[in-house]
Design a protein that fits this description.
single chain; about 325 residues; alpha/beta; four-stranded antiparallel beta sheet; about 35% helix; globular
Amino acid sequence: MGVHRSTYINMDEANSELGVVTVDGKKLDSDSSGQDIVTVTDRSGHTLKFQLFQGVHYIPLFKVAILQQIKGLKMRPDDIYFSGYPRTGTNWTFEMTSMLLNGKAETIQRAKDLMELSQPDKLAQLPSPRIVNSHMKLCDSPDDVAALKCKVIYTLRDPKDVIVSLYNLLYDRPWSYGRYQGSLEDYLHLFLDGTVEVNGIFEHWRDAEKYFSQHPEIPVHLQSYEDAIKDPVRAVQTLSDFLGLPRDDDLCRAIAEKCNFSGMKIDKEPFTVKIDGESCLYRKGIVGDWKNWFNDQMLEDYYRVYEEKMAGSRFYETYARS
């Protein structure tokens, strides 16, 4: 396995290797201007390309010009900053939170506003209270999040299920320059090394812990994917309480029902992110799918790194070896 930089990239050729990505039915323009492209090679020789921005791996879909503006993004005191590693239930949580703020169990007629894809002027046009979503580490969040003490929602999910979900999202799809053809086992070792999206979930979690300890005044809600699957009504109620809304249990039950995975997958189809016309964000929405993919050796390799990188973490026991 290894990483090397592409010292020169033909922008026309590079952009042509990316699939056509649409959000809310509208094509996203690809622009590799200023990107520091790195090629990550798995142990079987298969490659993935990322852009390296301030030491962090991101998909090339994100424009450098937007990433450069995020730290200085103007927030509002009533904004809800919604951070989470990819595939931890961010679309699901966005839908539940938005319905609560709207006061009705009706499908949100747009995709979530991912900061890495949104021009600041577009975010500025959103009515308050805004839900500003990002997959970036919290240390890279807008300075105003801490300065204004914005409410923060942080999503959690079993990393093993995240690995499987991310792999299925990436495999043989043109998210990057080219298509990844490695096996899940190949991808697992990239993930454990941190040479994947946002440098992997373990670094994301460690960064979140540091951020929360540095800013204890910020109100934080940890949204567990597994808890929300087990008791979705309770998950919505807890979100409602965190947002400071009057408790309406009938509304919470209606939102939990409206946000069930199978229904949401259909309802959000017109608005979801698609690549070359294929909707790929909503896959299974279950807990424990990793059991269908991991063999014993993969599990041993995973826990060896998990125990090394997450020992002492507030999140460790939640996802420790059982």
